[in-house]
Amino acid sequence: MIVRRVLFFVLYGVILLFCLATGSQVLYFVLAAMTGMLLLSLVSLLLVRLRFSLEESVEPAEAEAGASGSLSILMTNPYLLPFPQLEVEYTLPGPQGGSVYAAAFSVLPLQRIRIRETMDLPCRGVYEVGLKTIMVYDVFGLFRMKLPYQQLAHKPMPRVTVLPRMIPPDRATLPVLESPINAAGAARATEDTSSPSDSRPYRPGDPLKRVHWKLSARQGQLMVKTYEPAAVSDALLYLDTASAALEPVDAWYADDVLTAAAVSLAARILQEGVPVRIIYLKDRRIERRLTSLEELPALRRELAALELSGGQSLRSLLSRENATLAGARCAYVLTRELTGSSVDLIATLTRAGNDLRLGLCQGSGAALAGDAQRLYHQLEKKQIPVALLTPNDLPAAPLAALL
């Protein structure tokens, strides 16, 4: 196109010079025809820019990972003047924000052209989908104009929210949650002795330290204090949001595995009536506490939009959590990459009496190699519950084993 444009203007200039030098009527006629071509080219570009008709629909706007959707783009030419070649770029959900596709065609007078695409939604995320840009060419192929979708439609690109999968592990009970693991949790597991609520007559087996002596003297019988039920200790879910050294496609699937493991574990624990706290680091420490299954949809939408890159390291997250871990029943750590420093810190926290369980989320079913395999075996030797989670078996036996 650039060569054609340059040749056109060179020829136009040569003919103009000859016209001025010779005054030939034939050359003036040729010059007028070329001027008309130039004006028609510019008018055709402006006509498409100002009056192009575009309709786009995306279904569904929200779906669970593993589902499918559809994209429909309808372009209409309501004029008798044909729209010459158009090149459109549109995106579908994929790694690093989406996969770009292209198509080229002409829209004849009064013609409607529809592009239909079936969208696979294998991984969680929030994706801009649909028409991205249109490259418009004039009728003679001298000029072109690039039109972003926002300028053409005067609105943002449609988005599809793909929620993390939620398939709670199929297991009848949660043994680790039947009784608190830590000493701080055990102290709170029965009654909160700092909050006496009422009194009742003494029963055989009641400890003498609960006897309310002043009330017993007034009542003429032994009375014991009763207390408010203690708050149920939470289960913790730590999400490693730091960038992982993975290929883009592997990172895409690993992100999906991590968020799916988080919501699946949360759902299974909440089924037992145990509160769950989701904790991760971005610009600041973020914590979400869930006490019922009704709160999971909001969590799934939050994790669908969570960017798992650029956050602080797992070690930075865990190193400041001593107080939080002390009162928890147990803690699940979900990460996409093992490092020596994070493994050492997990081992130190475990020796201090904390119950930590680690899920390593991978983007493929390939076996671990190199340092990752060595660190994984190091955790196993220290008898720290650890599971390898992949897209193929989530949330089957490996995820259930963490419970």
Question: Could you explain how this protein is built, in words?
Answer:
By secondary structure, the protein is of the alpha/beta class. Helices cover 34% and strands 30% of the residues. The strands form five sheets. The protein has a six-stranded mixed β-sheet with strand order 15-14-13-16-17-18, sandwiched between helices. The protein has a four-stranded antiparallel β-sheet with strand order 5-4-8-9. A three-stranded antiparallel β-sheet has the order 1-3-6, with no helix packed on it. A hairpin with a 6-residue loop joins strand 4 and strand 5. It is elongated and about 130 Å long. The two termini are 64 Å apart.
Summary tags:
12 helices; 4-stranded antiparallel sheet; elongated; 403 residues
Strand order of the largest sheet: 15-14-13-16-17-18
Residues in helices, as a percent range: 25-40%
Contiguous runs where pLDDT drops below 50 for at least 5 residues: 175-192
Q: Topology as H/E string?
A: HHEEEEEEEEEHEHEHEEHEEHHHEHEHEH
Biggest beta-sheet profile: 6 strands, mixed
Q: Per the principal axes of the C-alpha atoms, what is the gross shape?
A: elongated
Number of helices: 12
Number of strands: 18
Gyration radius (Cα, Å) is 33 Å
- Output mean pLDDT: 82
Class derived from helix and strand content: alpha/beta
Strand content range: 25-35%
Kindly report how far apart the N and C termini lie: 64 Å
